[in-house]
Design a protein that fits this description.
Structural class: alpha+beta
Strand content: 25-35%
Largest sheet: 5 strands, antiparallel
Oligomer: single chain
Distance between the termini: 28 Å
Radius of gyration: 19 Å
Length: about 190
């Protein structure tokens, strides 16, 4: 939630077009006219649900192969609403790691679902919610790390967003093969 307003993830498009925008806003009524200004086709809301930056980013990553530009996606013959609903239903939640005392010596290690990890690092200015979480003034620069874990079939099995105060950071990390194959790493 941003301030006291509910964030919504939406699909906006035009009748007869397979190209849609997957976005997020706290004010859908103001968002449509803002987008309509740049579109020669009449736009309307096709679908919406409560959702935050994490859900929006997950959907953008999940449908990356359909991306045309920005937050616009061409679903071709697929129904964008049904595709998004299925992606949300199938979104795998992270499984909590077992505590060391809960592990049994004879138990086989739990295999990891993820075989590949990808980080997307960006910066932005902190909104009110970010500022409160990080104990920073609103508008302070922050670093956003969006980490996606992929399964062996290329599907997203976990997604997380990490916010950090921005500064003179160099972010560089390559997990070792041992880490990637360790169930404790995931």
């Amino acid at each position: 939630m941003t301030g006291d307003r509910l964030e919504r993830v939406y699909i906006i498009g035009s009748e007869g077009s397979s190209v849609v925008k997957i976005g997020r806003t706290v004010d859908l009524e103001r968002r449509i006219p803002a987008l309509q200004t740049g579109s020669y086709l009449p736009l309307h809301v096709i679908w919406t649900c409560a959702g935050d930056n994490g859900l929006e980013t997950y959907l953008h990553h999940h449908f990356a192969k359909f991306k045309t530009h920005g937050e616009w996606f061409d679903f071709g013959q697929d129904d964008p609403v049904e595709s998004v609903k299925a992606a949300i239903r199938n979104r795998v939640k992270p499984v909590p790691k077992a505590r060391q005392e809960d592990r049994h010596e004879s138990a086989d290690p739990v295999p990891s679902l993820a075989v590949r990890m990808e980080d997307a690092v960006s910066t932005r200015m902190a909104n009110a919610e970010d500022a409160a979480r990080l104990d920073l003034p609103e508008g302070s620069p922050i670093m956003v790390i969006e980490r996606t874990y992929y399964g062996s079939g290329g599907e997203v099995v976990e997604f997380s967003t990490v916010l950090r105060p921005s500064g003179p950071y160099l972010v560089s990390y390559q997990p070792t093969d041992e880490e990637l194959n360790s169930p404790r790493y995931w």
